[in-house]
């Protein structure tokens, strides 16, 4: 078979990628980024599904297709391929690699997505065998993140992850694609700029990115400290991608965060202030969605963002309970939380928000509500609440649960404050719950519920300005 360098393709993937950016789009709707084959290797080391805790091959393949479609790739063919013995050269073995190459030609594909990690050697050999660009699961997820990042922080984090991944893949195997282009280069070939980069330059860029992200971490830490000093608790939303976090975030906060039925529709973290029924202000944080086999480069690069989860007063694990692989998705999120030092099963801050109940059959929805009611009766405490962020069902229950959890251990103080001292009264209303108030003789007599930390802050800031 001729070397791919000697055979220019009929349609370069560099121009294909530009279509994804909308430069050559025609008609309405997102333009196609090209045609991609999606191949899921089924390796013998992977556990077989049992008890619903592991994903079925069909579900894993469906997710791989959805990942490709998230950057507007057209998928004319996808299949799972059993690999009895992984080949160090191509992962699949010569016969399967040749068959994939035949499918590339038959389906006129521009790209082959392998839903598994590939070594640089395997990726290069498959490209030569298939006569098409090949990316693995990590490369695809990084490409999605590179396409979605909008804020400077998000772009820094994605670039760091991409360069860490790309550093071992500086090869010159696709010289017919040498042309200048943006992005990270996974879909469009190496490009002129990538081929000119060597490991030393990438290492220097990584050092600069880490320095910039350290500044982001310091800034976020200062913001968290300011919120803590002001007595504003943080509630962080986490969950599998497309579980409905952004829809829930918009419902609770009134924000306009993009919420689409698409994997990784939201990438850049957002924080909004909401007020609970008790008057308690809360900072609500929407975070990037998790996914199975989340690239370690991303977990490391997004440390500044994920620290918001670590420091949160409450962590809402938003789950799509209508999904057939809900149990496996929960296990994946719990695994990422464990990497952050959070034991989801035992950490009292974690509350499960069982979302998309509107998409469940009526019998299953009834059984879910019955199970949660029994749990409340036997344990005396709620660890989960069923909601539909789309219809608003169950959101009042969720807000009441937040109020109870954040108010746990509050102290009720009996205070008398001069009516003219509006600063003290405003502070009490902002940070506590005024249970009772009676105004007479120029004094406001109040019963105020305060968290222990807020009670201590009140004592230190306003000592002598009120009477018990």
TrEMBL record:
Keyword field: Cytoplasm, GTP-binding, Magnesium, Metal-binding, Nucleotide-binding
Classification via Pfam families: GTP-bdg_M, GTP-bdg_N, HflX_C, MMR_HSR1
Main location: cytoplasm
UniProt cross-references to InterPro entries, sorted A to Z: G_HFLX_dom, GTP-bd, GTP-bd_M, GTPase_HflX, GTPase_HflX_N, GTPase_HflX_N_sf, HflX_C, P-loop_NTPase
SUPFAM superfamilies cross-referenced by the UniProt entry: P-loop containing nucleoside triphosphate hydrolases
PROSITE patterns, alphabetized: G_HFLX (PS51705)
Subcellular location: Cytoplasm
Domain (Hflx-type G): residue spans on this chain: 233-410
Domain of life: Bacteria
Family per record: Belongs to the TRAFAC class OBG-HflX-like GTPase superfamily. HflX GTPase family.
NCBIfam families xref list: GTP_HflX
Function: GTPase that associates with the 50S ribosomal subunit and may have a role during protein synthesis or ribosome biogenesis.
Subunit structure: Monomer. Associates with the 50S ribosomal subunit.
Name under which the protein is recorded: GTPase HflX
